[in-house]
TrEMBL record:
NB-ARC domain sequence ranges: 249-412
Annotated PANTHER family: OS12G0206100 PROTEIN (PTHR36766:SF64), PLANT BROAD-SPECTRUM MILDEW RESISTANCE PROTEIN RPW8 (PTHR36766)
Alphabetized GO MF terms: ADP binding
Any one GO biological process: defense response
Source organism (scientific name): Triticum turgidum subsp. durum
Keywords: Leucine-rich repeat, Plant defense, Repeat
Domain R13L1/DRL21-like LRR repeat region per the UniProt entry, residue ranges: 755-885
SUPFAM superfamilies registered for this protein in UniProt: L domain-like (SSF52058), P-loop containing nucleoside triphosphate hydrolases (SSF52540)
Domain of life: Eukaryota
Record protein name field: NB-ARC domain-containing protein
Length: 1245
């Protein structure tokens, strides 16, 4: 009932908005219709008010009223279609400057003549349709129309599914007579229905229904730190798992954990999985969600997770979708053969015995005893099918344990003083009704926390939804309580989550404009965050919990339908009232899919569906089924489609004149596919999403006719590159509703790219980059952009070069004129981030440095400008300042005489890069000294002598954590605070003042206040980089730094490896790099260190607590030293990233080196950087079955990929600064491997 009320209310609101349109309202009130537009709107609004009141009173189900509401919704749909169609033609005539839709407001001769002319055309059109002949009738302005029927947008034109975007698009003909009849008829019927609904809403029945649920995809980490009420069971289960190898002769045991939804099966299993005793007992642990049971998918997941478990990170982002099941099972069997493993299968639903046997096949080959599978399921029969030991049956928590848990959720240990007297009994009564379900406790606790008053809690207790629970362990009533307590505007929105796949990750723009498109809400109100606050969405990626997804399906079952092509469904069971339809595609589809989809045509009103959404890719066979099913569709507001060729576009695409939201996704294999030339005809479109389009990077010529478009998501994928299309829209000023335009290039073409186009876009927000400002001649021309009026703009980039310009400014012109131009580009004071690049004027604009300033600006970046002084006195909120390549800048001035203690007081980051004339930062006497400063990077400022915060006695830089200074020979540093370390050097300095991260560069030994004797005192150091230090001669200086996680030694040419240092085998050290960039390259310190590691491993010098090397990332400058069997054996199971950098000695790969490389079975990323003599890549790369990324940079002799190819697991290949032959071969390789991302750039001849 709630969904029916919400749907009817939302649709009425949408219809009222249409009637509120001045032109539409005038037409409805015209003499030829004879309707009272004001009375119609009043009736609709009265009905909407009653609907909202009915929801507030928690009206329950009543079949008669619900049926009446759905009739009302259908009639509102029909009325909206008619008025929307009228509005469509009004927009078209506005664009074409014609007047066929002007209302007849009187009985003058001109009005009668217009009506007669349209009546004659209507009769002629019907006759032509009957005889199926062509039409040569012309418009009043001489244009030839397309033929239409009584339904004005059913034009009998050639289907336009794609093609040349520059071809003029035929327009649909407006049939005034048919339109007037249709509007009058539907409005009169609607008026009658509103009266019936108004009377019926006085009935308040009480009825409740329950629906089964499904679970979400959840990871192994539990959000609940304490496991309430199951301590005894938990401890016994841990004991049973650990002793399984002694109590059973089986090498693999399956332990099911079974119970109803929301009872805590997954939480219980998560705590088992992460228990320290379990972690120590098993060598490998894998967590897999098996809600969608597919042997190949789950096997891929296990394969990927095994690799990730060796990194101890648990990420599953690197998928191996292009690998055969056979190879995956061989790999898993090999990796787990001698290891004890634990695999958790979470949320098993459907699985036959054959598929289960196939899944377990590689897991049965293990030689170690005590291997365990934990499995959660709601089905006792499934548990009985797969178990090898007695299942654990979870029930609701004991009342006292549950109540403790419930109170903790509500108050987090901070109960109010009046709780015991006023609320404790109510809380216990509410808890008793939740049947010990942990999820129900979490759901209802959020409701109670909103208002800890007796009145509110009493209302929760008396909610009638609890009175009709069918089963004591049924959680749906608890979930519906949260739904019932949602504000009405959120309650209208929630049901439509049912149309999306269960594991769908929403973004705010997508779901918000879906709601707008179907008429549920009027504008973007950030409802997603409100749903997060109400516990319906997880904030990270806006994921909807499957339990709540099932609730959305329950409450929207009469309106929304989502089917899975891989699962059977019965068209006979689909309600006739379905208005929104979505399909989740699978690689294989159910054999009954085609037949049931055909039946669907006679079951559902296909013509008037409001949404059609197709998720995931599908074959041509599926496309034919979809085309047959939906060929007559016309009323769509939302269309999501995946296209591989022109055939995939709907044949009647051009007739979908009601579209508000269109998402077109392409396929990586067809980069020549063009967008439909009919796109500019969708005048009602508000969101056009091309973010997953892989076809040609060209928009249709007349795209600016989309005058109602709010967002064009147009950062498309083209030839593996990301291309932004916003700067390709001519006459973009026509699109006055645009809320985002990321790029605009001034005078990119002769016509349509003037700055005045931006002046028309008053709704712009987000980010805007304006390129090619060198083409703007005067301040007056610059002011035509009207940036001052764009209050929602958050980030602005002003660039005098084109988007392809690089390097220093080549802008020519009088500096005074250039200064005038930038003065005319003043943004709104709300601006938060500003970038100015390539400006040739000598001074900064008055609006930036003047008496008013940008008070809300937090980030300022200036690059390649010609200014000499930069005053910062008015930038009171500035937190980040970046200055790059400003050759004339001499001073920065912060503070002013009339603003005390605020200038630069929020500054956190300062980055100065190549400022050759910069001498000083002047701070006025009243200004504060950067109390929040955290980071300073200064490079290439040869005349800089001091910073204000570095002067003796300033003492206001207690937040400073990073200080890096390069090529600033005149800059003197004072003593640092006692908690930090001072590292002054010669002409090059690099310092991190955070004691956890300390790079030492260019250290000059005796000339410095820093001595190596100070280093051992920094025992909490996490990262250490020592570069170019001739005084660093022994690794013994680092012996105490067992907390180090990252150690980098660069150009330490005097370092002697006088024996093995146990630091390198420490448990915490994960990343180690040692290489020589200059000086004596005949010696490799890395080679010496690797040799000592091998010696240490043979003589048991390794620390007992480590047991083996734990390095995950290793960078060296000697390929030959690394690729030896003894060295690679040390890192076989842990190393996932190997970096070869600056090896000038390598000439080829020997057979021994090729074989040694194969020992690195956990290797995921491999880098070859600046190896000038490297003639080729290793021939055995294709055998590295775990390799995910390969990076080759500046290796000029490498001309081809290995002859044997690359591993099937590879998902990323980056080629930079290499031969053109290698770059071209890499691009060709991508075409044959669509799942592989390849970036090849900076090729050399």
């Amino acid at each position: 009932m709630e969904a029916a009320i919400g749907m009817a209310s939302g649709l009425i609101g949408s219809l009222v908005n249409l009637l509120a349109n001045e032109a539409v309202g005038a037409y409805v009130a015209s003499t030829e219709l004879g309707l009272n537009s004001t009375q119609i709107k009043d009736d609709l609004l009265r009905t909407q008010v009653l609907l909202c009141e009915a929801d507030r009173r928690a009206m329950s189900n009543n079949a008669g009223l619900e049926g009446l509401l759905r009739r009302l919704s259908a009639k509102v749909d029909e009325a909206e279609d008619a008025l929307d169609e009228l509005h469509y033609f009004m927009i078209q005539e506005k664009l074409d400057n014609t007047n066929y839709t002007l209302p007849d407001l009187g009985d003058d001769l001109r009005g009668h003549a217009r009506h007669g002319r349209h009546a004659l055309r209507h009769i002629v059109g019907n006759c032509l349709t009957c005889f199926s002949c062509s039409c040569s009738t012309k418009y009043d302005d001489g244009r030839v129309p397309v033929i239409v029927t009584n339904n004005p947008h059913n034009a009998t034109e050639q289907p336009d599914s794609g093609g040349n975007g520059d071809r003029p698009v035929d327009k649909l003909l407006f049939d005034r007579v048919a339109m007037s009849r249709k509007i009058k008829s539907v409005i009169e019927e609607l008026h009658s229905l509103c009266d019936s609904v108004t009377e019926s809403l006085k009935i308040v029945p009480h009825h409740s229904s329950n629906t089964a649920i499904k679970r979400p995809i959840i990871g192994s980490t539990s959000a609940q730190s304490i496991l309430y009420g199951r301590t005894e069971l938990f401890e016994q289960t841990v004991k049973d798992i650990i002793t399984c190898d002694t109590n059973s002769s089986e090498t693999l045991s399956v332990l099911p954990i079974v119970g109803p939804g929301g009872i805590g099966k997954t939480t219980f299993t998560q705590h088992l999985y992460n228990d320290k005793r379990i972690q120590e007992h098993f060598d490998v642990k894998v967590w897999v969600c098996v809600s969608d049971f597919d042997v190949l998918r789950i096997t891929k997941h296990i394969h990927d997770h095994i690799r990730e478990s060796e990194k101890q990170e648990g990420s599953t982002s690197h998928q191996t979708t292009n690998t055969s099941l056979d190879l995956l099972q061989i790999y898993i069997g090999h990796k787990l053969k001698s290891k004890r493993f634990l695999i958790a299968f979470d949320d098993l639903w459907e699985c036959n015995s054959e598929d289960w046997g196939n899944l377990l096949a590689p897991l049965m080959k293990g030689e170690a005893k005590g291997n365990m599978i934990l499995l959660t399921t709601r089905s006792p029969s499934k548990a009985d099918t797969v178990k090898t030991t007695d299942a654990i049956a979870l029930k609701g928590l004991h009342p006292e344990d549950f109540f403790t848990f419930f109170e903790e959720l509500i108050f987090a240990g901070n109960k109010p003083e009046y709780y015991q007297e006023d609320l404790a009994n109510l809380a216990r009564d509410i808890a008793n009704k939740l049947k010990g379900s942990p999820l129900a406790a979490k759901t209802v606790s959020r409701i109670l926390k909103r208002d800890p008053s007796r009145e509110h809690w009493t209302g929760v207790l008396k909610n009638n939804k609890w009175q009709k629970q069918e089963n004591s362990d049924d959680i749906m009533p608890s979930l519906r309580i949260s739904y019932d307590y949602l504000p009405f505007h959120l309650k209208k929105c929630f049901p439509y989550f049912a149309l999306f796949p269960e594991d769908y990750r929403f973004n705010n723009l997508e779901i918000t404009y879906f709601w707008i498109a179907i008429g549920i809400i009027e504008k973007d109100e950030n409802y997603m965050e409100q749903l997060v606050d109400n516990g319906f969405l997880v904030k990270e990626n806006y994921v909807l919990h499957d339990l709540l997804h099932e609730l959305s399906r329950s409450v929207s079952s009469q309106e929304c339908l989502n089917i899975n092509s891989g699962e059977s469904f019965r068209a006979d069971a689909v309600p006739k009232s379905i208005r929104l339809f979505s399909i989740t595609m699978e690689e294989k589809y159910d054999v009954t899919f085609r037949g049931e989809m055909i039946k669907l045509r006679s079951k559902v009103d296909i013509v008037n569906l409001r949404a059609l959404m197709v998720f995931r890719e599908y074959s041509e066979t599926i496309n034919e089924i979809l085309e047959d099913t939906f060929m007559e569709i016309q009323g769509l507001r939302v269309l999501f489609m995946k296209v591989k060729s022109l055939k995939y576009f709907p044949p009647n695409l051009s007739k979908l004149i009601h579209l508000r939201y269109l998402k077109v996704s392409g396929h990586t294999t067809d980069s020549e596919l063009t967008l439909p030339s009919t796109l500019p005809r969708f005048y009602h479109l508000k969101l056009l999403d091309l973010s997953s389009w892989y076809g040609r990077d060209k928009l249709p010529k007349d795209i600016s006719r989309l005058i109602n478009l709010h967002y064009l998501v147009a950062r498309i994928k083209f030839h593996s590159q990301s291309v932004e299309l916003h700067s390709d829209i001519p006459e973009v000023g026509k699109m006055k509703c645009l809320k985002e335009l990321t790029k605009f290039c001034v005078k990119k073409e002769i016509v349509g790219f003037e700055l005045s186009e931006l002046g028309e876009l008053t709704e712009l927000g987000g980010e805007l980059s304006i390129y090619n400002l060198k083409m703007v001649a005067t301040k007056e021309e610059a002011m035509e952009a009207k940036l001052m009026l764009k209050a929602d703009l958050k980030k602005l980039e002003l660039l005098w070069g084109t988007e392809h310009d690089q390097g220093e400014s080549d802008v020519l012109g009088d500096s005074t004129e250039l200064s005038d131009v930038i003065d005319g580009l003043e943004p709104h004071p709300n601006l938060q981030s500003l970038v100015i690049k390539n400006h040739g004027g000598s001074t900064c604009p008055s609006w930036l440095c003047g008496s008013i300033g940008l008070l809300m600006l937090t980030s300022l970046c200036l690059e390649d400008v010609s200014w000499t002084i930069l005053p910062l006195g008015r930038l009171l909120h500035l937190s980040s300042l970046t200055l790059r390549n400003i050759p004339r800048l001499g001073q920065i001035i912060s503070g002013s005489s009339d603003i005390t203690d605020r200038s630069c007081s929020r500054l956190k980051e300062i980055i100065l890069f190549r400022l050759p004339e910069f001498t000083e930062w002047v701070v006025t006497p009243n200004a504060r000294w950067f109390p929040r400063l955290e980071l300073v990077h200064c490079y290439g400022c040869p005349n800089l002598r001091s910073f204000p915060f570095l002067e003796e006695g300033s003492g206001s830089y207690t937040s400073l954590s990073t200080l890096r200074i390069f090529k600033c020979p005149k800059l003197l540093l004072p003593p640092m605070p006692a908690t930090h370390i001072d590292v002054p050097a010669g002409p090059s300095r690099s310092m991190e003042y955070d004691e956890h991260d300390l790079p030492l560069t260019g250290h000059s030994g005796a000339a410095s206040k820093f001595t190596w004797a100070q280093l051992p005192k920094l025992t909490s150091l996490r990262e250490l980089r020592i570069e170019g230090d001739s005084s660093f001669v022994s690794m013994d200086l680092l012996s105490n730094h067992t907390s180090l996680t990252c150690l980098q030694l660069v150009d330490c040419e005097n370092l002697e490896v006088d024996g093995f240092n146990p630091l390198i085998a420490a448990v915490n050290l994960k990343e180690f790099a040692v290489h020589n960039r200059g000086g004596d390259r005949s010696r490799s310190v890395a080679a010496d260190l690797l040799s000592e590691m091998v010696v240490a491993s043979r003589t048991d010098i390794l620390l007992p607590s480590a047991g083996c090397f734990r390095l995950e990332t290793l960078g060296v400058d000697s390929i030959s030293a690394m690729l030896s069997a003894p060295v690679c054996s040390l890192f076989a199971t842990t190393l996932h990233t190997l970096i070869f950098e600056l090896d000038q000695r390598v000439e080829s790969f020997t057979e021994e080196e090729e074989n040694a490389l194969q020992l690195l079975t956990s290797l995921q990323h491999m880098y070859f950087w600046f190896c000038q003599g490297l003639p080729s890549l290793p021939g055995g790369l294709h055998k590295l079955s775990s390799l995910w990324g390969l990076h080759v940079g500046y290796c000029p002799k490498v001309r081809s990929l290995p002859k044997e190819g690359l591993p099937a697991s590879l998902r990323l290949l980056i080629v930079e600064g290499c031969t053109r032959e290698l770059c071209e071969q890499a691009k060709e390789f991508e075409v044959r491997n669509p799942y592989l991302r390849i970036d090849a750039y900076k090729c050399i001849d």
